[in-house]
Amino acid sequence: MTPETLISASAAAAEDRAIHGHWEGDLVIGTSRSAIGTLVGHTTRFNLLFHLLRMQGYGNKEHVKIDPALAGHDAAAMRDAITKAITGLPEELCRMLT
Question: What is the pLDDT of residue 70?
Answer without folding.
Answer: 56
